[in-house]
């Protein structure tokens, strides 16, 4: 809850409820906070239809299941039956042929350079199959990053390691581990996470692009490759548990573990960073779920769970688990159905399909890989209620709570009602719940001046709603007390749900009756919760005037805050042209609104600095959305391009009073070239640069004046390649900001880096993102400048561009051929 520290013109404040913490409830009340839409609504009514598999059978299926991965080109990677080799299939059809004994199809084996690296020349280059050592087996298979595959292997006794294969650069390296690995994961930063039952390890690094050849005739680095692939650290995991699954997203690493004694399953999480010793958070997997055998990340703090589906079951939904901030977990009422019926090729589905994009979860169906997605049709519970944990505190006793404004959506066929109770003793709040009238929709975007609201009126049933807080009965119907509790009731038609994006509860009430009418009309009775009588005249008058106050206050607040119309950053869009016209320099109407606001905010400064280099730079930066600040457009005064380094022979420049020479005649450099000056005639330029007052003869003075004329009153605008679309805007700003006595030139360049430009001109060279290399074209491509030969990050790079739809294994040409 956020309490507004400012008050309106009547001294009224409000409590703002707009976050998940503000709408948190303890009870299972069928109302939830929607993280995606950032609204409070009815709970979805798509309970997953989960098959109940025998736990021992599911455990057996998990222990014998093998992982499968898919690269960015749709190729599938899997382990051989003996788990000693990494194979690939170009697509699902190819994989099916590999499994069909009648066709006798043979899948290819993934190859990469050996541990010894690349040989000294091309004749020694060879690719070795990716396989486990003789006495070991691969335990898992994971893919991620820029195309790295992690294969932990072990013999179960004393040989434990992880093999890392780079699919694009085609190298493989092995890192020894001090524990038996069970699962592996590769994150977006190419870090390899390996976990066992009691250890978690991080491996990072990579080999050099080529083998380094040391030479005795030169100094050699202490460490040839400080970033070699190696084990960086390990940390203990909770004891007496079995690791079942490992996955990651862009922020966190998730581990699924089962307690060996009780069989209870837990989700453990740690930040996805390279710091060792991070504290792990845990959530219990709800006991009503069957045994979970794998996990995948659907969104932040939302995991997809894989459960084993028995052969005789047609219930193929998979559950999704929400990890709540309070340490609890909730099974989402949302269906994630699997495509297909029954087991997959006679084997139960046990593992999700590993792939490089960690933002999606894939699985194998009878027709190939499929993304796990929810049913798109919305279904909601028909009713729900919620008592918010948040207790609103006004900070003072016996406060009259005024009204509630809601940024909400109430579709036809749905309803939203609120009950409140106020009290002064926090430990004795009582049960005095007071139902309020139905919310009334207003034509305003918001009661706050110049605020558009969270749910705009673009939705027919969305916008601003108002409730005047009052009791249902009694002579005096004020809601009084320091504290306020809220109870929200929602009903829907099953297809739609009311939704609350923001709720603002105002207090204390400014009474027009008490402040503007004579004492004769004031309220002199107190609230009696046991009173069931009709309202007295003063109370009726109070609520009637409060209704008028609700109409007038938003208008008055807009008037009170009318100075916002004089601020370019705050003036409403419809009033912007009038403000720009008042200042006399309206920006072009076709500019985006934000650019026009920036221009108008700088108008005073630009007028004061019009005709200067600084004014031109700021105007160009605004007109090009920051291209000058990014270095894409560089205005340069030409006088700064004058040659400043020279070696002069035969000319005396001794002048003890000159601040630059100080009585010395040391030369600027010793390069023989255009900067070498041997005669008095050639020294005139140098005199003009450093000591024009030393020019004594008429010829020298004319030479000095000529140099000034060549560089003075001239400016060049350098436009780098990516800023060329701004040329028209640059021309318009030059016409507006550059005096007629200054000659301007626009220069376009595709060279972002100029050696020595920064020390010469005092400006940074423009740095840009390197463009993607185009395909090599014979007799057309400049290797090293516009073309690059590299392997795609695929299990089989040679078959990436092959038509996989009509693929037949016997038609494939091996990479060796």
Features:
817 residues; alpha+beta; eight-stranded antiparallel beta sheet; five-stranded mixed beta sheet; 46 strands; flat
What does this structure look like?
The chain has 817 residues and is α+β, with helices and mostly antiparallel strands. The chain is built from 12 helices and 46 strands. Strand 17 (192-195) and strand 18 (199-204) form a beta hairpin. Helix 8 runs antiparallel to helix 11 (727-737) and helix 9 packs across helix 10. Mean pLDDT is 82; it is low at 643-651, 657-679 and 803-817.
Strand content: 25-35%
Q: Distance between termini? A: 69 Å
Tally of DSSP β-strands: 46
Largest sheet: 8 strands, antiparallel
As a whole number of angstroms, the C-alpha radius of gyration is 37 Å
User: Given the helix and strand composition, which structural class is it?
Assistant: alpha+beta
Helix content: 10-25%
Q: Mean pLDDT score, rounded?
A: 82
Discrete helix count: 12
What is the general shape? flat
Which stretches of 5+ consecutive residues score pLDDT under 50? 643-651, 657-679, 803-817
> Please, what is the oligomeric state?
single chain
TL;DR of this structure?
This protein is 14% helix and 26% strand. It starts with a strand and ends in a 56-residue tail after the last helix.
Note the topology.
Layout: E1 2-3, E2 13-17, E3 31-34, E4 39-42, H1 55-64, E5 68-70, E6 76-79, E7 86-89, H2 92-99, E8 108-109, E9 111-112, E10 128-129, E11 137-138, E12 142-144, E13 148-154, E14 160-166, E15 171-176, E16 183-186, E17 192-195, E18 199-204, E19 230-236, E20 241-248, E21 252-259, E22 265-271, E23 281-284, E24 292-299, E25 302-307, E26 317-318, E27 320-323, E28 329-331, E29 336-337, E30 354-355, E31 362-365, E32 368-371, E33 383-387, E34 392-393, E35 403-409, E36 415-423, E37 434-435, E38 440-441, E39 462-468, E40 483-491, E41 499-507, H3 512-516, H4 537-560, H5 576-583, H6 593-601, H7 603-608, H8 613-623, E42 633-637, E43 647-648, E44 676-677, H9 684-690, H10 698-711, E45 714-720, H11 727-737, E46 743-749, H12 757-761
Parallel strand pairs: 5-30, 43-44, 45-46
Antiparallel strand pairs: 1-2, 2-41, 3-4, 4-41, 5-6, 6-7, 7-8, 9-10, 11-13, 12-13, 13-14, 14-15, 16-17, 17-18, 18-19, 20-21, 21-22, 22-23, 24-25, 25-27, 26-29, 27-28, 31-32, 33-40, 34-40, 35-39, 35-41, 36-37, 36-40, 38-39, 42-45
